[in-house]
Each structure stands twice: as structure tokens, then as C-alpha cells.
Amino acid sequence: MLNSTLNKTSNLTLFKGDVIKKTVVLTAVTSLFLIGCSSDQNFKREVEGNEDYLKSPTLKPLIIPESISVPAESGEFYVVKTEFKGNLGKKLDIRPPILPIPTIQDVLAVYNNGSVTFNVPLSNNVWNRIPDSLSRKNIPIASHDNNTIKTNKAFMARADEDQAVEATYSISRQLLGDTETITISIISLTRGFDDLISQPIEVQRYVVGLFNDIMDDVAPDSVRVVPRKAQNEEIEKENAESKKPATAVNGANQE
Length: 255
Description:
Blueprint: H1 2-39, E1 108-112, E2 115-121, H2 126-136, E3 141-144, E4 148-151, E5 154-156, E6 165-176, E7 179-191, E8 194-195, H3 200-218, H4 228-254
Antiparallel strand pairs: 1-2, 2-7, 3-4, 4-6, 5-6, 6-7, 7-8
């Protein structure tokens, strides 16, 4: 009886050991797959679906024998031949451009040709807080005075990119009454050996991205603009939480 019990215990221990080993192996394999998937961000900017259209042959000009007469050309049916320049298929970036989102009330922000310009009340003390915001993002400052900030090269990483870019920025301001107009411009933008400064979408993505990050840092909690939908959801959540204790008390009284 004792031997039988010992054998059962030993078998159970071996079984549990095998289960643990298999679980560890499966967990490790799954982690490798997840790491592989997480490092490839192409799915965030590619069109899903069949791409056989990219293999379509180029149209050739119609050859008309000399013995055949053809109708006169009509501008109504004329197709202008244009040479397409840009990315196709898997190289096409479908991500929308980033828009400047001011999180401070009474702020007007506009993006134009590589720069974000915004006007903000002096009372918000935005200009004096920008250096700290840059420091938190590991963006080194090359020079700084009362009206201009220039940065050294800094790596800017995004969750939807496989490789970080290296960028330099210039930030300037002009005082007008009780407001200040601040302009954030991108000076250089590279990814590895590729110069991206001539690519408008990339430039907009990184200069507006920096503006939005700064706005998130410098906006005081007291003047942050909360979307109405978020406000409604928060109110509903608070109402639901406030009802839980009352229900519990009623249930206890009934018992």
C-alpha cells in the first residue's frame, strides 16, 4: 500500500514537472512570436488586400496601319498621360497626417510648411516651461535665450515606426500684448542614411508630434480641455460606482 502511494505520488510529481516544462516552452515560443510581431510596425501603414494590380502591364500606344483612316482626335476623350511619382503597394503609407491639438483654452495652432505656430496667453507661462519639456524627452538644447531655442540632434521614437528618426528643432517666440506667439520648426530630419526633410508627411508628423507633446506637458490641469464624450463617460462611471454601496446595504438588510 505504501509503495503504491509512493508510486502514485512520484508519477504525479513527474506529470506536474512535464506540464510545467511544456508550459515554459510554450510561453517562451509565444513570447518570441509576440516580440517578432511587435517589432514589425508595417501593418500600421499598409493597405490590406490583394496587390496583383501592381503587376498590370503598361498600356502601349495604338498602332494604326497606313491604309486605315481614323476619326479626328477629340479633346473630349483625350487622356492626359502623367508620370506617377510616389510609393505603391506595401511601401504606401496610409497613416493620416497628425494635426496640432492645443490643450490650453484660447490657443490657436496652425501647421504650415514644416512649422507649427500657436498663440497663447502669457499667463500660462508656456515659453518658460518648454525647456523642461524638451529635457523630459531627452532633446538636448544647443542654445537658449528669451526668444529662441535651438536643439541639438535628438532621436525621436514612435510606436508606429520600426526605426527612430534623428531631428533638430528651432523654437522661437514673439510677444504681442498679453500673448506670445510661439513657432516650432523642424530643421533636419533623417532616418539612418535617408534624409526625410523633403518629405512633407514625415516633416508634419514629427514637428506636430513635438508640439502635441509639449502641449501635453505645459497645459495646467486646471485649464485642460476635456472632450465632452470623456466627461460624460466619467460622470456615468462615478454614478455607477456611487450606486454599488447602496445596493450592498439593501442586500444586507434583506438578509
